[in-house]
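Anyone up for a design puzzle?
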């Protein structure tokens, strides 16, 4: 298998591609590109616009659409015509090894590269939110949304059929792949990475005096904030010193504030508002346990950041979180079950030694699975397999057993799955 530097073309249709703007997809795309460039690969990136404080090295070339800064995402056909034109100009002078459309993978877009005879890699996909994640919708609204998904899936299915590799952040993202058995050998796990120096137990202050729960996320129903408030009412009655920090902004913030103000624990809840990326590690350091009771989190980047900081987690078993958090590093509870959530929080908050062991386990999992150099190595191995057209042993390749296990979890979503591989599930 060749180890020469690769010529890689990235399509990043979300904007901006950035190293500083608080845009999760843009920051993750930037880090993937930077990691590959540092390994000597030649990287070409097409994106509507970029906002960079530190220029990329010379082996990275960024192509942007004229006049797109600050504007909504361009129409799909417009972007497809433009990116295909960029690729054809590159191919006039350079042999591209791979084309990679980064997350989020939008339906239709990668079909712009059909017929160019360059292998296409898609993803990593994250899992989809459940239809009712933000509460029940009207029957008509539900029908319209399902119809839109069916239309989108027709294009995604064609994209997957043509792709040389389909990347998933966790096996929960199999809900984005129709008939995954048809793609065996081309399905791989590749999670986002985390900066293990920025997020580190060594950077944390001592654990707070009072047992403290941190919720750091968009404040919306689908993140499970109201279930957490109901659970905290029970926690506060059993553990009078317990405190809750709510960090973030979102559509449900006014209702959450109103709920807390009318509660018997309002003096034990602190609202931090929106937290800048540079302050996340410091905020995580203020908690005893990180809690994200989401109703179907697509992945959960804040969860692995808390794990990197050596914190225990209490989360739901739905979506990506059910695959990220193991019983050795936290507790997983059913969605919308305030009683189970309260019991898990009380168990962890009352046992300092348990928190220590969970935190150490989580940090180890991050170092072996989610550290950016490790993620970049995993991606390189996938690229090499695509180019060699072989199926050498790769723990990140999904098997039929993984597909069947995903379906079992989807059918029994509240199970603590015995076969869980814990954080990262396919750790190297």
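Challenge accepted. My sequence:
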């Amino acid at each position: 298998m060749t180890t020469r530097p690769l010529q890689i073309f990235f399509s990043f249709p979300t904007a901006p591609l950035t190293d500083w703007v608080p845009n999760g997809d843009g920051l993750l795309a930037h880090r993937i590109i930077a990691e590959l460039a540092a390994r000597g690969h030649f990287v070409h990136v097409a994106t509507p616009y970029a906002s960079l404080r530190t220029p990329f090295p010379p082996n990275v070339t960024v192509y942007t659409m004229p006049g797109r800064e600050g504007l909504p995402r361009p129409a799909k056909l417009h972007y497809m015509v433009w990116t295909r034109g960029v690729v054809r100009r590159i191919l006039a002078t350079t042999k591209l090894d791979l084309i990679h459309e980064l997350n989020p993978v939008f339906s239709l877009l990668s079909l712009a590269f059909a017929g160019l005879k360059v292998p296409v890699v898609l993803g990593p996909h994250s899992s989809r939110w459940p239809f009712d994640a933000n509460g029940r919708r009207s029957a008509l609204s539900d029908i319209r949304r399902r119809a839109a998904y069916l239309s989108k899936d027709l294009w995604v299915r064609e994209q997957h059929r043509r792709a040389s590799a389909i990347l998933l952040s966790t096996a929960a993202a199999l809900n984005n792949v129709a008939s995954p058995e048809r793609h065996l050998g081309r399905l791989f796990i590749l999670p986002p990475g985390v900066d293990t120096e920025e997020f580190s137990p060594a950077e944390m202050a001592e654990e707070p005096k009072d047992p403290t729960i941190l919720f750091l996320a968009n404040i919306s129903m689908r993140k499970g904030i109201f279930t957490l408030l109901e659970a905290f009412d029970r926690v506060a009655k059993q553990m009078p010193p317990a405190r809750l920090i709510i960090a973030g902004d979102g559509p449900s913030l006014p209702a959450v504030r109103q709920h807390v103000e009318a509660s018997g624990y309002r003096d034990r809840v602190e609202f931090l508002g929106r937290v800048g990326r540079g302050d996340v590690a410091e905020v995580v350091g203020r908690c005893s346990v990180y809690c994200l009771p989401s109703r179907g989190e697509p992945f959960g980047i804040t969860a692995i950041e808390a794990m990197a900081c050596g914190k225990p987690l209490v989360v739901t078993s739905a979506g990506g979180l059910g695959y990220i958090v193991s019983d050795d590093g936290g507790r997983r509870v059913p969605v919308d079950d305030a009683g189970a959530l309260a019991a898990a929080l009380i168990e962890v908050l009352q046992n300092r030694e348990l928190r220590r062991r969970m935190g150490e386990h989580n940090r180890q999992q991050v170092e072996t699975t989610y550290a950016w150099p490790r993620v970049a190595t995993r991606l390189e191995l996938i690229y090499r397999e695509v180019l060699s057209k072989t199926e050498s042993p790769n723990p990140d390749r999904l098997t039929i057993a993984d597909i069947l296990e995903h379906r079992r979890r989807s059918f029994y979503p509240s199970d603590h799955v015995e076969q869980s591989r814990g954080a990262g599930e396919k750790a190297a």
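A detail worth pointing out: The CA atoms of residues 215 and 246 lie 5 Å apart.
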